[in-house]
Write a structure and sequence with these properties.
372 residues; alpha+beta; eight-stranded antiparallel beta sheet; elongated
């Protein structure tokens, strides 16, 4: 690499990879598993995931049961449908606590309540976005994302002359030595996963920035629990009204009022909307006292920053796609640790080779004496 600028870019690429290597390893592996978070949740909670029931779904009964047994909790409904066999899953929140409550879809009885922090998916998510280190971890994850982004961009510059040749299989994969094998693996994985890695890193950094900012805000915020009050309206009737007036809206999530003067908010997908918009940024609000439909906010009409939030969440959390798409992004998640490991090995072997060369050339060394 005779170009001095190229040498500097390569050094930046090398040191960015080394500095962020361990964190990239953790985030890549957890990310590749979290691609299947819905399937993982269904497996983990299979004992409560479904019930033998044919009676109509009644969310009102379940909500009344929850508010009577769990007072001073903010309540959300994270899973519901018209399927009478699918249990209702409520998310209960306090500043330092999270509960995952499963309720019978028809009679509203509580089947079980779990500490969300102890579930596999939540534990992995916390590791992925904060390394289980609170605000410090959130800052480290955000910085790691930026360093990894720089590493990818400098990698593009470093290997720019062979990228298209590798994509067209015009560069051979060397297996002659362990170093040439690691080098080939590093280049091929880096090139083939480049675009998707850039996509995941950029969206992940954007989300991580928001999480970090919220973490700073939470430091000085009052640590008081917020209670979702009982509702004067029928939740099931609100859903019926939504289906009648907006049949293209597919509800998937509910945020109940945190105070008596706040509305009931229902999030969901909209038929015909681009796949890259998140379900959580389409919102329909209802008056919690009268049941009147107040407002409908959809992704295309949102402000630029809100759109960026929506697109980042949809892509990074993979709210779209089938098993093939998920497997592809799982490979992308694994590719980051592979790049980190092979990059570290190449650096280690290069240092070792340099030391051996210096020893051979040192005056008085056996090889120098024999050469004379």
């Amino acid at each position: 690499m005779r170009n001095p600028i190229g040498k500097k870019v390569y050094k930046i690429h090398k040191w960015c990879g080394l500095l962020a290597g361990l964190f990239i390893l953790v985030m890549g592996l957890t990310g590749s598993v979290l691609v299947f978070n819905h399937e993982l949740e269904a497996w983990e909670h299979r004992a409560y995931w479904e019930v033998n029931n044919q009676a109509p779904v009644n969310i009102d009964k379940a909500y009344r049961t929850i508010t009577s047994q769990y007072q001073n909790w903010e309540i959300r409904l994270q899973r519901f449908s018209d399927n009478p066999q699918e249990t209702l899953i409520f998310s209960l929140r306090r500043p330092e606590e999270r509960l995952m409550v499963f309720a019978h879809p028809a009679n509203g009885t509580i089947l079980t309540a779990l500490d969300s922090h102890k579930t596999i998916t939540t534990w992995l998510l916390t590791l992925h976005y904060s390394l289980h280190a609170d605000l410090t971890g959130k800052i480290l994850v955000f910085i790691t994302g930026l360093i990894f982004l720089i590493s990818l961009l400098t990698g593009v510059i470093t290997y720019r002359k062979v990228i298209f040749r590798m994509l067209l299989f015009r560069v051979s994969f060397s297996r002659k030595t362990k170093r040439s094998f690691a080098s080939s693996l590093h280049r091929f994985v880096g090139v083939w996963a480049l675009l998707l890695n850039l996509l995941m890193v950029i969206t992940g950094a954007w989300i991580s920035y928001g999480i970090m900012v919220n973490g700073f805000k939470a430091v000085g915020a009052p640590n008081k629990p917020i209670a979702s009050p009982p509702l004067a309206i029928s939740i099931d009737q609100a859903l019926s009204t939504l289906r009648e007036q907006h049949p293209d809206f597919q509800p998937t999530y509910m945020r109940f009022p945190k105070a008596e003067d706040q509305p009931l908010t229902i999030n969901g997908f909209v038929t015909g909307q681009p796949f890259y918009y998140s379900q959580f940024y389409n919102a329909v609000t209802f008056d919690a006292k009268t049941g009147a439909l107040l407002d409908v906010k959809l992704n295309p009409a949102a402000e630029t920053t809100t759109k960026l939030d929506s697109i980042s969440h949809s892509i990074h959390f993979l709210e779209f796609g089938n098993w093939l798409i998920k497997l592809l992004f799982c490979f992308v998640g694994i590719s980051a640790p592979l790049l980190s490991i092979t990059g570290f090995l190449l650096w280690k072997w290069k240092i070792k080779a340099t030391k051996e060369t210096h020893q051979r050339l040192r005056p008085g060394s056996p090889k120098m004496v024999s050469a004379k």
